[in-house]
Amino acid sequence: MLKLPIYLDNNATTPMDPRVLEAMIPYFTEHFGNAASRNHPFGWEAEEAVDYAREQVAKLIGADPKEIIFTSGATEGDNLAIKGVFEMYASKGNHIITAVTEHKAVLDTCKHIEKAGGEVTYLSVQEDGLIDLKELEAAIKPTTVLIAIMYANNEIGVIQPVKEISAIAKKHGVLFFTDATQAVGKIPVDVIKDGIDLLTFSGHKMYGPKGVGALYVRRKNPRVKVTAQMDGGGHERGMRSGTLNVPGIVGFGKACELCRIEMEEDTKRISQLRDKLENSLMQLEEAYVNGNKEHRLPHVANISFKYVEGEGLMMGFNKNIALSSGSACTSASLEPSYVLKALGLGDDLAHSSLRFGLSRFTTEEQIDYTIKAISETVLKLREMSPLWEMYKEGIDLNSIEWAHH
Amino acid sequence: MSNRIYFDNAATTPLDKDVLDAMMPYLTNCFGNPSSIYSYGRESRLAIETARKKVAKILNAHPAEIFFTSGGTESSNTAITAAVRDLGCKHIITSSIEHHATLHTVEYLHRHDNVELSYVKLLPNGHIDIKDLENILASSKEKCLVTLMHANNEIGNIIDIHKIGNICKKYNAIFHSDTVQTVGHFPFDLRNTPVHFITGAAHKFHGPKGVGMLYINENVKIKPFINGGSQERNMRAGTENLYGIVGFAKALEIATEHYEEESTHIKNIKLYMKEALEKNIPNVSFNGDVLGNSLYTVLNASFPKTEKSEMLLFNLDINNICASGGSACTSGADAGSHVIRAINHHPNQVAVRFSFSKQNTKQEVDIVIEKLKELI
């Protein structure tokens, strides 16, 4: 029996894997020690658990455990990486390059950097959501200290050419930071092969707990340093103070391990379901996939249905299918997605988009239900739409001069 | 395992079972991102706002004054940094016995933002010298931030938060108090307390690690410390630690419900241990204002240094007794306690902090005393 509502918003957050919770429970109960307590076994057990999790996390991205800084989540990681590099490398320069389709955590931090006297270049993206590498290289100045480009986009799933970006960064002696929150655990990410200097991600996007994340900070070739943003007991090698969230970290470690072991199989299954969903919905007239289909996360599809109002679309099924039109962090606003606008979509298409994010727990039955529900809603809404009628009559809507009111 | 005695509750406390039960739905079925607008998200949002209201009510604050963070360290960093960068404080007054989350933050601001830094004098019992505080405030030409912890995590001394708050008010200073050791252990009435910022960490009162609180008085407006999404009414970006926030509120609720009997119980253990130490250990002394204005959870004792007692913490551990030499945050360092050094620098003494919770018993104290007699 199909259980409703169906959850297809796994880019916003994922349910926790029961195996992750199971790993966390002992650290909620008998092993409750403070990992910084050095003179009794409650502290040691906690510290050992954190060390083990650090290895699990590091292994997933091909890093050394010493290069992992635990944080409260990806947003804190974004803040620490960007502000931390900006402050640490102030003597070298004050220029940061990022892209207009980054997550708010990066964009808002860059705005903060501008107020603090920094200079930020916001690269535009091409129609498919990818940045232009030539534009990136041309933007580099002698004062550039950091390139901050996300690994994969949270709304359209487009994967940036990370290797090429890192090669450009290296050639010009600039550090490369990537927000890999959506990518890690879903596709192979390897900080060495990818040439990444700093990378952030979080537990709750990969079947782990909320409230915990990691920042990878490269220690060799080059040795990268960030200025701590939270001072205190000098935890996490002085880069991030505060009592460690031991159960959270243990859960995060377990989630990383599961993703590392099961990624290949998960991806095979999930991408088939995603393709089925996408291909079926594309049978509808005037439906458009947003973003590059080739360089894209295997569990994500972002589709716009022209001549359908997005709000109405969501209302049609949101009791039974949990979906969003874009980032959760901005979903309360009625503004169309800035990411879709950056791809050059007009308000009509940007307003009529749906973001599908599948997960390890998504079933074929759920996908079949979703295809049916969404197709029906789109057809029904179009039946009622005067714009759709005009389109069907062959009237070029762009040629109409609308009365202003 | 079960015969271990845990007397290090100022470092962290065991999670209450009822707190875990309250968190469990949010670790399983109710997992939605609180910013999402469909049912999963709305349930999560409701849980967070209910938690906020609960916390606000208990502390007698307005829900709009309560912000959830990743812990006490983030809260203190946020408050202190904002006082300087957003509220125009150019002079920080603190004490040398603050937690490192405060000390390292003020030192950083002193170095980087050219903020003047003063340390208020301490009395021999570890209390701050209020006259000196007033003198510094009176002679300061700049707007001041006063940051003084409510209860010291190593020696337990409690400041008079009303008295200090009123002095700050008189000199138009911003007042931040690190209340990590007292939230959940002490009744607050923030509506009637002259303080701008206080902080809390759930894991100090049988709640989960990784979640904290910052109270920001409605009369001060600051900018976010962590930039990004619009969570916590634009004050703290980042997907909320949903289960943690639910756990924070539940733990505070339980602590408040049982405050009378639990604080009496713990205080009796502290006094019982103090007397037992005096009776059984020659030349023992105590750090801080033990019988005066002092937190009932902390007892800091100094033992005469001998070849045996130098290894005291190590030997206590071998005997399944968990205590500490000072703050856990610095217990890895060999530098010793900066607090003990500041108030009572006796090179011939070994200071040990015993800190208690509702789960401890007098029987445990008896066992510890017997061991101490052997070990010293």
Mind explaining what this structure looks like?
- The complex is a heterodimer of chains A (405) and B (376).
- Chain A has helices at residues 18-28, 41-60, 74-88, 104-115, 133-139, 162-171, 246-281, 310-317, 338-342, 347-351, 364-383, 386-392, and strands spanning 6-7, 68-71, 95-99, 119-123, 144-148, 175-179, 198-202, 213-217, 287-289, 300-305, 321-322, 353-357.
- By secondary structure, chain A is α/β, with parallel strands linked by helices.
- In chain A, the strands form three sheets. Chain A has a seven-stranded mixed β-sheet with strand order 2-8-7-6-5-3-4, with helices on both faces. Chain A has a three-stranded antiparallel β-sheet with strand order 9-10-12.
- The model of chain A has no long low-confidence stretch (mean pLDDT 94).
- Chain B is 39% helix and 13% strand.
- Chain B has twelve helices and twelve strands.
- Chain B has helices at residues 17-27, 39-59, 72-85, 100-112, 130-139, 161-170, 231-234, 242-257, 259-280, 312-318, 338-343, 362-375; strands at residues 5-6, 66-69, 91-94, 116-119, 144-147, 174-177, 197-201, 212-216, 285-286, 298-304, 321-322, 349-355.
- In chain B, the strands form three sheets. A seven-stranded mixed β-sheet of chain B has the order 2-8-7-6-5-3-4, sandwiched between helices. Chain B has a three-stranded antiparallel β-sheet with strand order 9-10-12, covered by helices on one side.
- Chains A and B meet through α1, α2, α3, α4 and α7 of A and α1, α2, α3, α4 and α8 of B.
